[in-house]
């Protein structure tokens, strides 16, 4: 009977040792897999938000465990807080600068060098087409087939955009004429 207890104890001890050793190797494999998954999640988030430092992304992913939660946090806040100082890679994550000292207050006399055009007609250089009455093409005269050539598609889309802007201008001028307002000049804003 004593031999049976000893054999059972020995088998149990071997089983426990095998589980510990086998569990450690499985854990090592899962850590490698988790590191790969973490790197993939960091890559996904970094591709969506290239302005966010990788160390901040990695830290937030370690805390949250989800790329979706990290993306939501970036979308809500616009940034991720930097990782704590003891976190590996924390020194490469720049601290967000206060927004108050970002730029000195500008005076009213300063004007930006490249001010946007006042209206769509000048922005898309359609002044001569607005004055030309023969440019009133019907929208159905536009080709409806989608071209295989990228340049043709680009030209077609630009032409459609120009036609839409000119149509809107004509409708606005017609409404103003009906209301008895002054005629619309090409330089008035849309």
Mean pLDDT over the full residue set = 74
Give the % helix.
55-70%
The largest β sheet comes out as: none
Tally of DSSP helical segments: 6
How many whole angstroms does the radius of gyration measure? 33 Å
Beta-strand content bin: under 5%
Distance between the termini: 101 Å
Number of domains: 2
Which structural class fits the helix and strand makeup?
Answer: mainly alpha
Globally, the shape reads elongated
Q: Would you identify the regions where 5 or more consecutive residues have pLDDT less than 50?
A: 93-112
Reading the helices and strands in chain order gives HHHHHH
**Overall number of strands:** 0
Which labels suit this protein?
190 residues, 2 domains, elongated, mainly alpha
Structure, explained:
- With 190 residues, the protein is an all-alpha fold.
- It has two domains: 2-92, no CATH class; 120-179.
- Helices cover 57% and strands 0% of the residues.
- It has helices spanning 2-48, 54-64, 67-77, 120-123, 127-131, 150-179.
- The radius of gyration is 33 Å and the shape is elongated.
- Mean pLDDT is 74; it is low at 93-112.
């Amino acid at each position: 009977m004593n031999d049976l207890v000893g054999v059972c104890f020995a088998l149990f001890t071997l089983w426990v040792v095998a589980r510990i050793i086998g569990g450690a190797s499985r854990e090592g494999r899962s850590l490698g897999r988790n590191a790969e998954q973490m790197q993939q999640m960091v890559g996904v988030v970094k591709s969506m938000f290239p302005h966010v430092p990788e160390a901040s992304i990695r830290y937030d992913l370690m805390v949250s465990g989800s790329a979706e939660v990290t993306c939501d946090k970036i979308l809500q806040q616009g940034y991720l807080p930097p990782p704590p100082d003891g976190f590996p890679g924390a020194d490469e994550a720049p601290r967000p600068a206060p927004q108050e000292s970002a730029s000195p207050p500008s005076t009213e006399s300063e004007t930006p060098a490249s001010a946007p055009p006042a209206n769509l007609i000048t922005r898309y250089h359609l002044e001569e087409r607005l004055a030309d009455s023969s440019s009133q093409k019907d929208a159905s005269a536009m080709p409806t087939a989608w071209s295989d050539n990228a340049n043709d598609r680009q030209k077609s889309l630009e032409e459609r955009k120009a036609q839409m802007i000119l149509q809107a201008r004509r409708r606005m001028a017609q409404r103003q004429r009906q209301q008895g307002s002054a005629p619309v000049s090409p330089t008035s804003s849309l």
